[in-house]
Design a protein that fits this description.
Radius of gyration: 17 Å
Strand order of the largest sheet: 6-2-8-1-12-9
Cofactor: Zn(2+)
Protein name: Aromatic ring-opening dioxygenase, catalytic subunit, LigB family
Number of helices: 10
Mean pLDDT: 94
Order of helices and strands: HEHEEEHHEHEEHEHHHHEEEE
Low-confidence stretches: 9-16
Strand content: 15-25%
Number of strands: 12
Shape: globular
CATH topology: Protocatechuate 4,5-dioxygenase, Chain B
Structural class: alpha/beta
Family: Belongs to the DODA-type extradiol aromatic ring-opening dioxygenase family.
Distance between the termini: 22 Å
Keywords: Dioxygenase, Metal-binding, Oxidoreductase, Zinc
Helix content: 25-40%
CATH architecture: 3-Layer(aba) Sandwich
Pfam family, one: LigB
Largest sheet: 6 strands, mixed
């Protein structure tokens, strides 16, 4: 069964609930933002299978900061934070509104660290390449929460738990990164599919730990061996997964989609919590 067929199968059986799901999405190449492929199609299908959110909050690998910040402007700009891609990708604008009132509420929810209101960042490609497929009319408010590189994975997990209540308010919280992400070892010969042995082994270990609810081992990923350090040479693409896991309720189920390796050293594996 293809990854898209698997996705469509489990989304047909999503429970009816007032609690918005929370999702980790492997975003991969910025080109997924303009290409119609199995990954972007699954994002579009996902939006149709869940309730329409009142707002979308994204924890993107590409807003890595000293301190924790939330975008708080009326209309966040579309950031083209990449190089070497076709002009068509740079021409994309995603004019979704922000949500200043919601942004102002989030610092009151987080007690483990200070959260600053940001009026400069906008929506980076870890956000708009996904949400433009999910909500192409750009009519849902979108915010970003930054990842503080001075904080431990445990602290990021705590922050996620503190903002769990957003899910009860109709906010869709997305983590955007990649479970296995080592661009230095990228293979162009495998760019359309395929993973190194170590990448596939580590991706499967991550999936098993997620399925078994062993969040502590995932938080302490550096103790998982040399394959984990190959999979996560730097943590910014992995930490959005920690946010998604931190927002999981005790009785909620886990499903995987887009479970595919590309480029040898990158996996698109995504996680739906519902």
């Amino acid at each position: 069964m293809s990854t898209l067929s698997q996705f469509r199968h489990f989304t047909q059986h999503l429970p009816k609930t007032d609690l918005m799901p929370t999702i980790f999405i492997g975003h991969g190449s910025p080109m997924n933002g303009i290409e119609h492929n199995e990954f972007s199609q699954s994002w579009a299908d996902l939006a149709k299978s869940i309730p329409v959110p009142k707002a979308v909050l994204v924890v993107s690998a590409h807003w890595y900061t000293h301190g924790t910040f939330i975008t708080a402007m009326d209309f966040p700009s579309t950031i083209h934070d990449f190089g070497g891609f076709p002009q068509a990708l740079f021409d994309v604008q995603y004019p979704a509104p922000g949500a200043p009132a919601l942004a102002a509420e989030i610092p009151t929810m987080v007690h483990s660290t200070a959260v600053g209101l940001d009026h400069d960042w906008g929506l980076d490609h870890g956000t708009w390449t996904i949400v433009r497929h999910m909500y192409p009319e750009a009519n849902i408010p979108v915010l970003q929460l930054s990842i503080d590189y001075t904080q431990s994975p445990e602290r990021h997990y705590e922050i996620a738990k503190e903002i769990y209540a957003l899910r009860k308010k109709g906010v869709l919280v997305l983590g955007s990164g990649n479970m296995v992400h080592n661009l230095r070892m990228l293979s162009w010969e495998m760019i359309n599919g395929g993973g190194y042995d170590w990448a596939m082994e580590m991706n499967n270990r991550f999936k098993n730990l997620i399925a078994n609810g062993d969040h502590q081992s995932l938080i302490n990923y550096r103790n998982l061996g040399k394959e984990a350090l190959l999979a996560i040479p730097t943590p910014e693409h992995y930490l959005p997964l920690i946010y998604t896991l931190g927002m999981k309720g005790d009785q909620e189920e886990i499903s995987f989609f887009n479970d595919k390796a590309v480029g040898g050293s990158l996996t698109m594996t995504s996680v739906l919590v519902s």
